[in-house]
Amino acid sequence: MSATSGIGVSSELSAEFSRAVEDRQTRFIKVSIQNESLIHDLSIPMRGTLEEDLLQLGSDEIIQDNTPTYLLAKLDDPPAEWLVIYYVPDTAKVREKMLYASSRASLLKSLGSSLFSDSIFATSRGDLTPEAYAAHRRHVNAPKPLSASEQETADARAAERQAGGLSAYQGSRSRTSPIGQTIGMAWAADLEDAVKSLGEGDESVLVILTIDMASETVVLHSTSATKADEVGAALPSDDACYAFFAWKHSPSRRDIVFIYSCPSSCPVKHRMVYASGFNAVFVAAKTLLAGSLTPLQSRKIETSTPSDIDEAFLRSELDLLTTSGSGTPTDSTGNDDEKKPFARPRGPKRR
């Protein structure tokens, strides 16, 4: 924080500024520092808009090339607010530069800082033209620069709003359950038939689902007879998807496993849409498969590396027992020896 000069506002300047605030007919008030005081130097009435009146500042009677000054400018919108211009040319003396720089806070505090909603730092007359002021306003109204993490967060929120059907942020009142937002997402007719067919048959079958972003429809990507070790290779490696794997993991047992795959390279918007529809797709499939011979596993599998999915991965995630060559279930460690009963410890020897 820079030190203040201790220079105060003269009573004449305070009275002139109060009058200008009340009558709303003054466009510019020129303020100078003389005899260790901020004084009223000149008042310029309104002639047109602020942009048009800025042309008057090109006159040598108002500002000089080598002399610093303050200019208080009344805004058009809102009309009750003011713009303060700090004009300190590069060619001014060092002492004057320091004096005007250290007196800015005193000027605003004495006149009422709440009345000043904008400020401009000018070093030449070229900074006070209508074009320069328009460029200044574009800069002020431009979006604030964001870091990489802040930009990613903003993109994710925008994708979330778009996925939820919100054109703009509407606060916490507009938030609804992700399930409720996606239950109405349409399913292609052939997709429903493909999911229903998983409840029948005796083979291992993989059905892959994707979302058509343009129509917001869940569509059938592919259906194929697939072994457990081939599931990872069958899933898309660069985009998200859902999959239902009807897996015969033992001679007498066949289950349907729900898989949600979302690689890290997947676009942010796709990640948000697929994540919001995750539970809805599972619930819809559970309804379609109700009463089928092959049950839908309640445990869901999520992965960001689809190539990792193989038989060992599935058994580990689902806590399924391995099977021996004879088809008899064994524990996952392969130890099928009969467990010995607890041996009662011997008592002490008699003396």
TrEMBL record:
Q: Where is the composition biased (Basic residues)?
A: 342-351
Q: Ranges of Low complexity compositional bias?
A: 320-333
Q: Name one GO molecular function term.
A: actin monomer binding
Annotated Gene Ontology cellular components are: actin filament; cytoplasm
Among SUPFAM superfamilies, the record links this protein to: Actin depolymerizing proteins
Give the UniProt record's GO annotations in the biological process aspect.
Answer: actin filament depolymerization; barbed-end actin filament capping
Which locations, inside or outside the cell, does it occupy?
Cytoplasm, Cytoskeleton
- What is the predominant subcellular site recorded for this chain? cytoplasm
Which ranges carry the ADF-H domain? Answer: 6-138, 182-319
Q: Which UniProt keywords apply?
A: Actin-binding, Cytoplasm, Cytoskeleton, Repeat
> What family is it from?
Belongs to the actin-binding proteins ADF family. Twinfilin subfamily.
**What does the annotation say about its assembly with partners?**
Interacts with G-actin; ADP-actin form.
This protein is called ADF-H domain-containing protein
Species this protein is from: Mycena pura
